[in-house]
Specification:
Helices cover 4% and strands 39% of the residues. With 141 residues, the chain is mainly beta. The longest helix has 5 residues, at 19-23.
Length: 141
């Protein structure tokens, strides 16, 4: 299935904590902060670990694989160019189930999206950022 047309997007404000998350896609990497002391993944990115309170937190690449923990199918055009229906989901990363990314699910019929569906990341380039999206694993090839 071809990549859907890119709708107009409101891009995030970039800071030192979230820069790796929004730019790692340039190299095909989903970057998630991880504590160097206890190994806990931290998302959204912040400069400390909520588990052990260490400030030894830095971004590192993860597999980009996960499962759909929750989703909704949107039938309203909220911004010009937004395809409808579209799927907004929480994806739990394989590395750590409580790291949940808010994202769109693409490359499949919205009616086919299911809870616990295995998905893999892909990136859409906008200006200097690479926005992470997910698609079903069987559509990734």
């Amino acid at each position: 299935m071809d990549t859907p047309p890119a709708p107009a997007r409101t891009l995030p404000a970039i800071d030192k904590d979230n820069c790796a998350y929004w730019t790692g896609g340039e190299h095909g990497r989903l970057m998630i902060c991880r504590c160097g002391q206890c190994g806990y993944y931290v998302h959204p990115p912040v400069p400390f670990c909520p588990q052990c309170e260490s400030s030894d937190v830095a971004p590192e690449p993860v597999s980009g694989r996960g499962r759909i923990a929750s989703f909704t199918v949107n039938h309203k055009i909220w911004v010009p160019g937004l395809p409808t229906p579209s799927v907004l989901a929480l994806v739990a990363l394989d590395e750590q189930d409580d790291v949940r990314l808010v994202c769109n699910i693409t490359h499949c019929n919205p009616d086919a999206v299911r809870f616990d569906m295995p998905v893999v990341v892909w990136f859409e380039h906008h200006e200097d950022l690479w926005v992470p999206f997910f698609r079903p694993v069987e559509q990734a090839a």
